[in-house]
Each structure stands twice: as C-alpha cells, then as structure tokens.
C-alpha cells in the first residue's frame, strides 16, 4: 500500500483557490479520508463518484418525506455526498488515476443529484402543504443550477480559445524577432521548444492549479478589470492566502444553501425553505453577473491585445523579402 501523508494530500490535491464551503467545511475532513482511502484501500475515483450519487439519492429520499427529522437527515447525507464528490478528484490527482470518462461521470452525476434533490425537497414540501410555490421553487433551483454550469463551461471554453490564440501569436512574434536577429548576424539564444510548450500559461485559472504548483504570472486579460476595480486585487489576495476564491456564492454555495442550509432552517422554522433558497439564488446570480461583466472586460482586452500582436507579426513579416519568409515551426527555434 502507498504511504501518502496529509501534507502530500494538501500539496497535490488542494486547489489553489476553491469555494469557501469546500475550504472551511469539506477539505479538513476530506483530506483525512483521502489519506486513509489512498493508503489503505483500492477504491477508485469512479467508485467514489458512484458512492456520492448514492448518498445524494439517499438525501433526496429523505427530503421527500418532508418531516423535520428527515430534512436534517437529508441535509447530512447531502453534505456527505458532496464530501465524497470532492474526494474522487483528490484521489485521482494524488494517484494520477484521473480519466476523461471519470470527469464526465462526475459532472453528469452532479447534475443528476441536484435534479433529484430539487424535485424531492420541493415536491415533498408541496405534498405536505399543497403550496404550489414549492413547484416553482423546484423549477427555479434546477434552472439556476443549469444556467450556472452552462455559463461556466462556455466562459471556460471561450477563455481557453482566447489564450491559445494569443499564445500562438506571441510565439510567432518571438520566432520572427529571432529570425530578424539571425538575419542581421546577431547572437541569439537557443530557445528550447519543449520548454516553451511546458511553460506556465500566464492566463491559467488558479482553480486549475493545486497548492504545490508554481504560481502563474498575472493575467493579461484582466487589465481592464484591474484598472476599474483596483480594490478587488487586495480582497482577492487576502482571500487567496486562505485558498478562498472571491466568487463567494458560486454553484457550490448555492447548492449548499438549498440542500443543507434551507432544510436545516426549515426543521427549526416552518416555511423557511423557499426564502433561504431564494436568498441563495439571488446571491449566486449577483456574483454570476459580476463574473459576466469581468468576462466582458476581458474580451475587450483580448481584442486590443490580439490587434496589437497581429500588427506586430505583420510588420515583422514585412521585413523579410517574400522569397525569404522564415519557417516558423517550433523546431526552427532550436
């Protein structure tokens, strides 16, 4: 069996920035369970993903019964389900056993868990009270969860495309400048193409890094945002030191608000589920609008930077006679 330490788990599996609910209420337990699971068992990440779904379905069954003891049980099962859901990714990163299928399975099961629990929680309350507002609340929860994750995936995809295009033009400009220097007889350093390919992406999201990674440089695509909101960097830096991301009410906090905080509140105060769920939804929408605005500013930075790089590449190419255009493959930089 392996001998992973708790420090190994933290350095290799903790995200550099994560939701505050995960950092404060899940990781302290999950890290110890991951160490035990990795060292003492052969449980795979996909098995943990299935286990998280089973616990999520158990939470849904408890919510459907509607009485306060079952609401508390459902909230507990949902938290344990989310803990297992966090463990599968940590085990995969720790042991290097992640897979594309595992990532897909994790995403699909997450959405199934939210759908089942939303219908069960609100449906159980509707059956117990006859209040049709619970039906609309179920629709609202499912819609907001779908909107949040669709938006996150699309923004991630577009930002990745933007980064790739800027990186390609930056490398092309570097190689053209190198070719100009060689044509003029200047001494030029040898550029290792492998080193370029493996160098950190200056636009990489910290959510994609773990604690043990080297930090990446500041993002070029955030210049406009940083100029308009200079105070944001100070808040971000304070939170980052504790691994908490500034997006304080994300999809994770929204789910926990609806499926943990709301049922617990309803066990104490009758009728608390809809107000608490609505408050969680409003908070998430406010932060999502902030993210969309930030992304819009990034797109403007991208357009300006792209135009500058395209003009630079065109000017550098114009400096060579047509028949002597340099070949700009990675091998030519060595």
From TrEMBL:
Any coiled-coil regions, as ranges: 159-186
UniProtKB keywords: Coiled coil, Membrane, Transferase, Transmembrane, Transmembrane helix
PROSITE patterns xref list: CDP_ALCOHOL_P_TRANSF
InterPro entries referenced in this protein's UniProt entry, alphabetically: CDP-OH_P_trans, CDP-OH_PTrfase_TM_dom, CDP_ALCOHOL_P_TRANSF_CS
Residues that span the membrane, as ranges: 50-71, 132-150, 248-266, 272-296
Presence of keyword Coiled coil: yes
Similarity comment: family membership: Belongs to the CDP-alcohol phosphatidyltransferase class-I family.
Protein name: Phosphatidylglycerophosphate synthase
